[in-house]
TrEMBL record:
It comes from the Eukaryota. This is Protein kinase domain-containing protein. InterPro entries: Kinase-like_dom_sf, PRK1-6/SRF4-like, Prot_kinase_dom. The lineage of its organism: Eukaryota, Viridiplantae, Streptophyta, Embryophyta, Tracheophyta. Gene3D superfamilies: Phosphorylase Kinase, domain 1 (3.30.200.20), Transferase(Phosphotransferase) domain 1 (1.10.510.10).
Amino acid sequence: MFCAGESQLYSLDQLMRASAELLGKGTIGTTYKAVLDNRLIVSVKRLDAGKLGGTSREVFERHLESVGALRHPNLVPLRAYFQAKDERLLVYDYQPNGSVFSLVHGKSTRAKPLHWTSCLKIAEDIAQGLSYIHQAWRLVHGNLKSTNVLLGSDFEACLTDYCLSVLATTTPTSEEDPDSAAYKAPETRTNSLNDHDHHDQQQQPTSKSDVYAFGILLVELLTGKPPSQHLVLPPNDTMKWVRSLREDEQNDVHDKMAMLLEVAIACSSTSPEQRPTMWQVLKMLQEIKEETISSMEEVENEVG
């Protein structure tokens, strides 16, 4: 099935004959890079039937119809999907520039975190994509992490793997890697204390749990450390810790970074009610950007 407005560029037969290269295994499936005989390159996610358990054909199709209609510069577009008795495939555009995870952690020799302006740009791109999912569609990403943010042709950050968590029937168990677990908001974790009250509602990700994951991802960008290595500290100490990782920067950079870190701290509040909405986050990031531009202009004027 091609998604709304997509032209049928290839058949299932062509897709099955494509050369496939494994890109990675995720929480609910495995992703391949497929090169079709007409030279088109796509990314194919093969969903793990075991993780999707009881999702009926109808529910799957209905859900993917709405997910396939999402179009935004900061989302990797879902172009087509396929389902047979034991096989479910999702076809996305292939993104050649890798993920934010590999950008931040890829070169182990480079211990320095990303320049803070790159952090701001990536954060704003992600916030744009999430706001669109939350506001325009009332959907939830449900699995935000640095491996699920890919870099587009202009190095814009694009979300992938979005809105699929509702299809998964099994909640990830202890075998889940510590980094993935660290993005999960406290209220969605299985060992939540008030679990017995409304067990099922506890598990499903919400727009507020997306905001939590965004906060963790922003700290990851600012520190260059994977989420399992983030220190749980009071806000002032968090600020000191992040500064110590970015020692060689001037004070004005520290000020801007502190503003970004404040956004991250607000997003990763343990209480969902205390977290801002993604739209509010986007506004905060745009204010930081505007402030940066005007302060750079002031410096240029002084120099000029």
